[in-house]
Amino acid sequence: MADIAKLESELLAQIAAAPDEAALEALRVSALGKKGSVSELMKSLGTMSPEERKTQGPLLNGLRDAVTGAIAARKAALGDIALNARLASEAIDVSLPPRPESQGSVHPISQVLEEITLIFADMGFAVAEGPDIEYDDYNFTKLNIPPDHPARQMQDTFYVAPQGDESAHVLRTHTSPVQVRTMLNHQPPIRIISPGRTYRVDSDATHSPMFHQVEALVVDRGIHLGHLKWTVEEFCKAFFEIDTIELRARPSFFPFTEPSLEWDMRCDRSVPGQIKFGTGKDWLELGGSGMVHPRVLANCGIDPARYTGFAFGFGLDRMAMLKYGIPDIRSFFESDLRWLRHYGFAALDIPSLDGGLSR
Ligand code: DAH
Which of 93, 181, 266, 321 is the most exposed place for a label (fewest CB within 10 A)? Predict the structure, then answer.
Protein backbone atom coordinates (compact mmCIF):
# COMPACT_ATOMS: atom_id res chain seq x y z
CA MET A 1 0.00 0.00 0.00
CA ALA A 2 2.67 2.44 1.06
CA ASP A 3 4.64 1.28 -1.99
CA ILE A 4 1.82 2.18 -4.33
CA ALA A 5 1.37 5.64 -2.86
CA LYS A 6 5.12 6.24 -2.93
CA LEU A 7 5.49 5.01 -6.50
CA GLU A 8 2.58 7.22 -7.54
CA SER A 9 4.00 10.38 -6.00
CA GLU A 10 7.44 9.65 -7.48
CA LEU A 11 6.05 9.02 -10.95
CA LEU A 12 3.79 12.08 -10.88
CA ALA A 13 6.72 14.27 -9.83
CA GLN A 14 8.90 12.90 -12.64
CA ILE A 15 6.12 13.36 -15.19
CA ALA A 16 5.47 16.93 -14.12
CA ALA A 17 9.19 17.68 -14.48
CA ALA A 18 9.64 15.97 -17.88
CA PRO A 19 11.43 18.61 -19.98
CA ASP A 20 10.26 17.45 -23.40
CA GLU A 21 8.18 14.89 -25.31
CA ALA A 22 11.05 12.41 -25.62
CA ALA A 23 11.65 12.36 -21.85
CA LEU A 24 7.92 12.00 -21.28
CA GLU A 25 7.74 9.05 -23.66
CA ALA A 26 10.66 7.36 -21.86
CA LEU A 27 8.80 7.80 -18.57
CA ARG A 28 5.63 6.35 -20.05
CA VAL A 29 7.49 3.24 -21.22
CA SER A 30 9.23 2.84 -17.87
CA ALA A 31 5.89 3.01 -16.02
CA LEU A 32 3.17 1.72 -18.35
CA GLY A 33 5.22 -0.25 -20.92
CA LYS A 34 5.22 -4.04 -20.95
CA LYS A 35 7.94 -4.24 -18.32
CA GLY A 36 7.10 -0.93 -16.71
CA SER A 37 6.90 -0.45 -12.94
CA VAL A 38 3.12 -0.02 -12.93
CA SER A 39 2.58 -2.90 -15.35
CA GLU A 40 4.70 -5.21 -13.17
CA LEU A 41 2.56 -4.35 -10.15
CA MET A 42 -0.60 -5.00 -12.17
CA LYS A 43 0.78 -8.42 -13.10
CA SER A 44 1.25 -9.25 -9.41
CA LEU A 45 -2.53 -9.09 -9.01
CA GLY A 46 -2.69 -12.57 -10.53
CA THR A 47 -0.66 -14.08 -7.71
CA MET A 48 -2.74 -12.50 -4.92
CA SER A 49 -5.44 -14.11 -2.82
CA PRO A 50 -8.98 -13.00 -3.67
CA GLU A 51 -9.08 -10.93 -0.46
CA GLU A 52 -5.89 -9.11 -1.26
CA ARG A 53 -6.95 -8.54 -4.83
CA LYS A 54 -10.14 -6.88 -3.61
CA THR A 55 -8.20 -4.16 -1.82
CA GLN A 56 -5.13 -3.97 -4.10
CA GLY A 57 -7.04 -4.07 -7.40
CA PRO A 58 -8.75 -0.67 -7.07
CA LEU A 59 -5.55 0.87 -5.72
CA LEU A 60 -3.49 -0.36 -8.67
CA ASN A 61 -6.15 0.72 -11.16
CA GLY A 62 -6.14 4.12 -9.51
CA LEU A 63 -2.36 4.29 -9.83
CA ARG A 64 -2.47 3.37 -13.51
CA ASP A 65 -5.22 5.94 -14.22
CA ALA A 66 -3.41 8.67 -12.31
CA VAL A 67 -0.16 8.04 -14.21
CA THR A 68 -1.97 7.85 -17.58
CA GLY A 69 -3.83 11.08 -16.85
CA ALA A 70 -0.69 12.88 -15.67
CA ILE A 71 1.16 11.87 -18.86
CA ALA A 72 -1.67 13.17 -21.06
CA ALA A 73 -1.82 16.44 -19.14
CA ARG A 74 1.95 16.93 -19.34
CA LYS A 75 1.88 16.13 -23.06
CA ALA A 76 -0.73 18.84 -23.67
CA ALA A 77 1.24 21.32 -21.56
CA LEU A 78 4.47 20.55 -23.46
CA GLY A 79 2.56 21.09 -26.73
CA ASP A 80 1.41 24.51 -25.54
CA ILE A 81 4.94 25.42 -24.45
CA ALA A 82 6.34 24.38 -27.86
CA LEU A 83 3.63 26.33 -29.72
CA ASN A 84 4.19 29.45 -27.66
CA ALA A 85 7.93 29.22 -28.20
CA ARG A 86 7.37 28.87 -31.95
CA LEU A 87 4.96 31.78 -32.06
CA ALA A 88 7.44 33.92 -30.17
CA SER A 89 10.35 32.96 -32.43
CA GLU A 90 8.37 33.45 -35.64
CA ALA A 91 6.68 36.68 -34.62
CA ILE A 92 6.52 39.23 -37.43
CA ASP A 93 6.26 42.93 -36.81
CA VAL A 94 3.79 43.93 -39.54
CA SER A 95 4.43 47.60 -38.85
CA LEU A 96 8.04 47.37 -40.09
CA PRO A 97 8.72 48.80 -43.58
CA PRO A 98 9.24 46.18 -46.35
CA ARG A 99 12.75 45.10 -47.22
CA PRO A 100 13.91 47.01 -50.29
CA GLU A 101 14.91 43.82 -52.13
CA SER A 102 11.47 42.23 -51.76
CA GLN A 103 9.30 45.09 -52.97
CA GLY A 104 6.49 43.94 -55.24
CA SER A 105 4.95 45.85 -58.12
CA VAL A 106 1.51 46.10 -59.65
CA HIS A 107 0.94 44.15 -62.89
CA PRO A 108 0.04 46.42 -65.84
CA ILE A 109 -3.29 44.57 -66.25
CA SER A 110 -4.21 45.32 -62.63
CA GLN A 111 -3.11 48.91 -63.11
CA VAL A 112 -5.23 49.34 -66.24
CA LEU A 113 -8.17 47.67 -64.53
CA GLU A 114 -7.89 50.16 -61.66
CA GLU A 115 -7.66 53.07 -64.08
CA ILE A 116 -10.70 51.97 -66.10
CA THR A 117 -12.78 51.31 -63.00
CA LEU A 118 -11.92 54.74 -61.68
CA ILE A 119 -12.88 56.51 -64.91
CA PHE A 120 -16.25 54.76 -65.11
CA ALA A 121 -16.96 55.10 -61.40
CA ASP A 122 -16.54 58.84 -61.90
CA MET A 123 -19.23 58.66 -64.63
CA GLY A 124 -21.60 56.83 -62.28
CA PHE A 125 -21.08 53.25 -63.46
CA ALA A 126 -21.10 50.28 -61.08
CA VAL A 127 -18.82 47.26 -61.51
CA ALA A 128 -20.59 43.96 -62.25
CA GLU A 129 -18.98 40.53 -62.27
CA GLY A 130 -19.67 37.13 -63.77
CA PRO A 131 -18.02 33.70 -63.62
CA ASP A 132 -15.29 32.50 -66.00
CA ILE A 133 -17.18 29.22 -66.49
CA GLU A 134 -20.39 30.48 -68.04
CA TYR A 135 -23.66 29.00 -69.26
CA ASP A 136 -23.61 28.45 -73.01
CA ASP A 137 -27.07 30.08 -72.85
CA TYR A 138 -25.71 33.35 -71.39
CA ASN A 139 -22.52 33.41 -73.46
CA PHE A 140 -24.40 32.82 -76.72
CA THR A 141 -28.13 32.10 -76.88
CA LYS A 142 -29.51 34.98 -74.80
CA LEU A 143 -27.16 37.30 -76.72
CA ASN A 144 -29.05 36.37 -79.88
CA ILE A 145 -26.49 33.76 -80.99
CA PRO A 146 -28.59 30.55 -81.34
CA PRO A 147 -26.86 27.13 -81.38
CA ASP A 148 -26.48 26.90 -85.18
CA HIS A 149 -25.45 30.55 -85.65
CA PRO A 150 -22.22 31.06 -87.62
CA ALA A 151 -21.07 33.66 -85.06
CA ARG A 152 -20.27 30.75 -82.72
CA GLN A 153 -17.47 29.84 -85.10
CA MET A 154 -16.17 33.43 -85.00
CA GLN A 155 -15.19 32.82 -81.41
CA ASP A 156 -13.16 29.63 -81.02
CA THR A 157 -14.76 28.37 -77.87
CA PHE A 158 -13.36 26.24 -75.07
CA TYR A 159 -16.21 23.92 -74.17
CA VAL A 160 -16.33 22.66 -70.60
CA ALA A 161 -17.38 19.29 -69.17
CA PRO A 162 -20.87 19.24 -67.56
CA GLN A 163 -20.96 21.08 -64.23
CA GLY A 164 -23.45 18.75 -62.51
CA ASP A 165 -26.62 20.00 -64.16
CA GLU A 166 -28.24 19.71 -67.56
CA SER A 167 -26.99 23.00 -68.99
CA ALA A 168 -23.98 23.31 -71.29
CA HIS A 169 -21.05 25.42 -70.09
CA VAL A 170 -18.17 27.20 -71.82
CA LEU A 171 -15.20 29.28 -70.74
CA ARG A 172 -16.74 32.65 -71.52
CA THR A 173 -15.50 33.93 -74.88
CA HIS A 174 -16.31 37.56 -74.01
CA THR A 175 -17.55 39.63 -71.06
CA SER A 176 -20.91 40.18 -72.78
CA PRO A 177 -22.68 37.43 -70.74
CA VAL A 178 -22.36 39.79 -67.76
CA GLN A 179 -24.83 42.02 -69.64
CA VAL A 180 -27.27 39.10 -69.53
CA ARG A 181 -26.67 38.45 -65.84
CA THR A 182 -27.13 42.13 -65.02
CA MET A 183 -30.36 42.54 -67.00
CA LEU A 184 -31.84 39.30 -65.64
CA ASN A 185 -31.35 40.64 -62.12
CA HIS A 186 -32.02 44.38 -62.46
CA GLN A 187 -34.56 46.54 -64.21
CA PRO A 188 -33.33 49.82 -65.80
CA PRO A 189 -31.78 52.25 -65.22
CA ILE A 190 -28.65 50.12 -65.67
CA ARG A 191 -25.15 51.52 -65.90
CA ILE A 192 -22.37 48.97 -65.41
CA ILE A 193 -18.93 48.02 -66.56
CA SER A 194 -17.59 44.52 -66.23
CA PRO A 195 -13.87 43.93 -66.56
CA GLY A 196 -12.65 40.34 -66.48
CA ARG A 197 -10.95 37.31 -67.97
CA THR A 198 -12.11 35.80 -71.25
CA TYR A 199 -10.98 32.74 -73.22
CA ARG A 200 -10.59 31.70 -76.84
CA VAL A 201 -8.59 29.01 -78.65
CA ASP A 202 -6.00 31.39 -80.06
CA SER A 203 -2.33 32.21 -79.44
CA ASP A 204 0.20 34.52 -81.12
CA ALA A 205 1.90 37.88 -80.40
CA THR A 206 -1.45 39.70 -80.28
CA HIS A 207 -3.70 36.84 -79.06
CA SER A 208 -3.59 34.87 -75.84
CA PRO A 209 -5.95 31.95 -75.02
CA MET A 210 -6.78 33.84 -71.82
CA PHE A 211 -7.17 37.58 -72.15
CA HIS A 212 -9.17 40.42 -70.63
CA GLN A 213 -12.07 42.54 -71.77
CA VAL A 214 -14.08 45.33 -70.29
CA GLU A 215 -17.77 45.40 -71.06
CA ALA A 216 -20.02 48.41 -70.64
CA LEU A 217 -23.82 48.40 -70.59
CA VAL A 218 -26.27 51.27 -70.25
CA VAL A 219 -30.03 50.66 -70.42
CA ASP A 220 -32.62 53.34 -69.74
CA ARG A 221 -35.42 55.27 -71.43
CA GLY A 222 -34.27 57.21 -74.49
CA ILE A 223 -30.68 55.96 -74.68
CA HIS A 224 -29.27 56.52 -78.20
CA LEU A 225 -26.06 56.37 -80.24
CA GLY A 226 -25.05 59.85 -79.09
CA HIS A 227 -24.74 58.56 -75.52
CA LEU A 228 -22.54 55.72 -76.76
CA LYS A 229 -20.29 58.10 -78.72
CA TRP A 230 -19.91 60.53 -75.82
CA THR A 231 -19.11 57.76 -73.36
CA VAL A 232 -16.50 56.11 -75.60
CA GLU A 233 -14.84 59.48 -76.28
CA GLU A 234 -14.77 60.60 -72.67
CA PHE A 235 -13.44 57.24 -71.62
CA CYS A 236 -10.64 57.27 -74.20
CA LYS A 237 -9.63 60.84 -73.33
CA ALA A 238 -9.39 59.95 -69.67
CA PHE A 239 -7.70 56.60 -70.22
CA PHE A 240 -5.04 57.74 -72.70
CA GLU A 241 -4.67 61.00 -70.74
CA ILE A 242 -4.92 63.31 -73.76
CA ASP A 243 -7.71 65.68 -74.79
CA THR A 244 -6.93 65.70 -78.48
CA ILE A 245 -7.86 62.13 -79.40
CA GLU A 246 -9.78 61.50 -82.59
CA LEU A 247 -12.12 58.55 -82.87
CA ARG A 248 -13.65 56.91 -85.90
CA ALA A 249 -16.69 54.62 -85.88
CA ARG A 250 -16.99 51.91 -88.54
CA PRO A 251 -20.19 49.97 -89.26
CA SER A 252 -19.86 46.40 -88.08
CA PHE A 253 -21.89 43.37 -87.13
CA PHE A 254 -22.55 41.70 -83.80
CA PRO A 255 -25.64 39.52 -83.25
CA PHE A 256 -26.36 41.26 -79.94
CA THR A 257 -26.34 44.87 -81.20
CA GLU A 258 -28.25 46.74 -83.92
CA PRO A 259 -26.74 48.88 -85.28
CA SER A 260 -23.18 47.75 -84.50
CA LEU A 261 -20.06 49.90 -84.61
CA GLU A 262 -16.36 49.35 -84.16
CA TRP A 263 -14.15 52.12 -82.84
CA ASP A 264 -10.70 53.13 -84.05
CA MET A 265 -8.42 55.81 -82.67
CA ARG A 266 -6.16 58.05 -84.77
CA CYS A 267 -2.48 57.51 -84.09
CA ASP A 268 0.99 57.95 -85.51
CA ARG A 269 3.17 54.87 -85.86
CA SER A 270 5.67 56.34 -88.33
CA VAL A 271 8.51 56.12 -85.81
CA PRO A 272 9.20 52.41 -85.23
CA GLY A 273 8.59 51.28 -81.65
CA GLN A 274 6.66 54.47 -80.85
CA ILE A 275 3.01 55.36 -80.91
CA LYS A 276 1.45 58.83 -80.65
CA PHE A 277 -2.26 59.38 -80.22
CA GLY A 278 -4.33 62.17 -81.70
CA THR A 279 -2.15 62.78 -84.78
CA GLY A 280 -0.85 60.72 -87.70
CA LYS A 281 -2.27 58.61 -90.48
CA ASP A 282 -2.81 55.29 -88.70
CA TRP A 283 -5.93 53.97 -87.01
CA LEU A 284 -5.92 51.67 -84.08
CA GLU A 285 -8.77 49.30 -83.26
CA LEU A 286 -10.33 49.63 -79.80
CA GLY A 287 -13.30 47.25 -79.88
CA GLY A 288 -16.94 46.64 -80.72
CA SER A 289 -20.11 48.35 -79.61
CA GLY A 290 -23.68 49.09 -80.57
CA MET A 291 -27.25 49.59 -79.51
CA VAL A 292 -28.42 46.54 -77.54
CA HIS A 293 -30.54 44.36 -79.86
CA PRO A 294 -34.23 44.50 -78.84
CA ARG A 295 -34.28 40.71 -78.83
CA VAL A 296 -31.46 40.64 -76.26
CA LEU A 297 -33.40 43.05 -74.03
CA ALA A 298 -36.50 40.83 -74.34
CA ASN A 299 -34.48 37.63 -73.72
CA CYS A 300 -33.32 39.19 -70.44
CA GLY A 301 -36.75 40.33 -69.24
CA ILE A 302 -36.53 44.00 -70.26
CA ASP A 303 -39.30 45.55 -72.34
CA PRO A 304 -37.72 46.80 -75.62
CA ALA A 305 -40.74 49.02 -76.23
CA ARG A 306 -39.91 51.07 -73.14
CA TYR A 307 -36.15 50.86 -72.95
CA THR A 308 -33.10 51.10 -75.20
CA GLY A 309 -29.46 50.59 -74.39
CA PHE A 310 -25.91 50.72 -75.65
CA ALA A 311 -23.01 48.40 -74.97
CA PHE A 312 -19.37 48.03 -75.81
CA GLY A 313 -16.64 45.51 -75.25
CA PHE A 314 -13.00 46.59 -75.45
CA GLY A 315 -9.86 44.48 -75.11
CA LEU A 316 -8.21 45.38 -71.84
CA ASP A 317 -4.83 43.80 -72.62
CA ARG A 318 -4.71 45.62 -75.97
CA MET A 319 -5.40 48.91 -74.23
CA ALA A 320 -2.62 48.20 -71.72
CA MET A 321 -0.23 47.30 -74.57
CA LEU A 322 -1.04 50.56 -76.36
CA LYS A 323 -0.85 52.81 -73.39
CA TYR A 324 2.31 51.35 -71.93
CA GLY A 325 4.11 50.26 -75.13
CA ILE A 326 4.10 46.52 -74.42
CA PRO A 327 4.79 44.65 -77.68
CA ASP A 328 3.70 41.04 -76.95
CA ILE A 329 0.44 40.06 -75.22
CA ARG A 330 1.88 36.71 -74.08
CA SER A 331 4.47 38.44 -71.90
CA PHE A 332 1.63 39.57 -69.59
CA PHE A 333 1.09 36.00 -68.46
CA GLU A 334 4.63 34.59 -68.28
CA SER A 335 5.24 35.64 -64.66
CA ASP A 336 8.74 36.84 -65.51
CA LEU A 337 9.89 38.98 -62.59
CA ARG A 338 12.35 40.96 -64.73
CA TRP A 339 9.47 41.88 -67.05
CA LEU A 340 7.30 42.87 -64.10
CA ARG A 341 10.06 45.01 -62.61
CA HIS A 342 10.28 46.83 -65.94
CA TYR A 343 6.58 47.25 -66.69
CA GLY A 344 5.10 47.06 -63.19
CA PHE A 345 3.79 49.98 -61.14
CA ALA A 346 4.71 51.07 -57.64
CA ALA A 347 2.32 49.34 -55.26
CA LEU A 348 1.41 52.45 -53.30
CA ASP A 349 0.94 54.73 -56.32
CA ILE A 350 -2.80 54.27 -56.60
CA PRO A 351 -4.24 55.86 -59.76
CA SER A 352 -6.47 58.88 -59.23
CA LEU A 353 -8.25 61.16 -61.67
CA ASP A 354 -6.86 64.36 -60.21
CA GLY A 355 -3.39 63.04 -59.36
CA GLY A 356 -2.92 61.48 -62.81
CA LEU A 357 -3.87 57.92 -63.68
CA SER A 358 -0.50 56.49 -64.59
CA ARG A 359 2.05 59.07 -63.41
N1 DAH B 1 -18.37 40.73 -77.22
C2 DAH B 1 -17.73 41.23 -78.43
C3 DAH B 1 -16.48 40.44 -78.69
O4 DAH B 1 -15.89 39.92 -77.80
C5 DAH B 1 -17.39 42.67 -78.29
C6 DAH B 1 -18.60 43.54 -78.19
C7 DAH B 1 -19.15 44.04 -79.33
C8 DAH B 1 -19.18 43.80 -76.98
C9 DAH B 1 -20.27 44.82 -79.27
C10 DAH B 1 -20.30 44.59 -76.89
C11 DAH B 1 -20.85 45.10 -78.06
O12 DAH B 1 -20.90 44.90 -75.75
O13 DAH B 1 -21.94 45.89 -77.99
O14 DAH B 1 -16.07 40.33 -79.81
Answer: 93
